[in-house]
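Listing S7. Sequence submitted for prediction.
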Amino acid sequence: MFTSLDLANHFGFKIINGDIKSLNRQIIVPELDRPGLELLGLFSYHEKKRIMLIGNKEMALITNAKNDDIYQNCLKICNPECPAVIITHGNPCPEPLLRAAKENDCPIFGYDSDTSQLESDMYVYLTEALAPKTAIHACLLEIYDIGVLIQGESGIGKSEISLDLIKKGHRLIADDRVNIAAVRGHLIGTCPESIYGMMEVRGIGIIDVSRMFGINSLSKSSRIRLLINLVSFNRNEPLERVGMKTDRFEILGESIPLIKLPVSAARSMSEIIETAVTNYKLKDYGYDTGYEFQKRLEELHEKQEMKKREAELFLKQKNDDMQSSSSDKSSDNRGE
């Protein structure tokens, strides 16, 4: 649960009104409102669950209107579902607003900075704080600046392969458990605080990655753009060979590409994963190797068909010439 007090602590708001109960009002939407129309008494499209920002324009409305009218309108603004009212630019709280907030036990915060800047910063912060979240069993690394989830059944070697990738200069975000949030259409992966920078390697135990490979081997978070699923090598299982087909995997309503890679002792999995990520980046930049290969095959097939048609046409023309020559000789013989 994310509360008004959490927001106040993050931005350093000054508490003007509110007790412990009101400060624990839950924030459930990231959108914010500047209640200019509401201060004039227009509540047709009022969103009760939004945080209200009172800037210089709203202060001018309050100053130039009758106190009783403003008080009645502020009672509706400071409703029990409103998480908080924030007064910006260091302005003092108007008496009608403070009276209405006390009556409805609504939190009021003060802030010294600009309203528009605060609105922008708060929206970004709230979309992340209120984003849908989940956790999955996987490793998350940043490979060539691409957030890559590495999944696979227990014991297949995820941590060992991740360790090899870290030694090659790629960065670890999380080992074994990854926290994921859907933020503004992107999947953002982070590591639980208790295991940040740690990896479990079978036969060795827990290792501290930053101490062994340097602080640059870690990253706090990464946008997840690719999922690699490690599977046991099976000759009888059909796997993609050309690369024309792209599987997808859905997390929190967002879809990312999925690549299945068979694991065997003879394969250098870290290099294969680097190749898979590079190929993904090429596709992202508009170059699809599978498509280009298919296009090359089609061009070769068209050339072969053209040569075949030319050969058939040549043979047909030769046969026609031979028949024409035979016909001319027959005519000459009859003339003699």
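Caption to Listing S7: primary sequence and predicted structure tokens for the chain studied. The mean pLDDT is 88. The radius of gyration is 34 Å.
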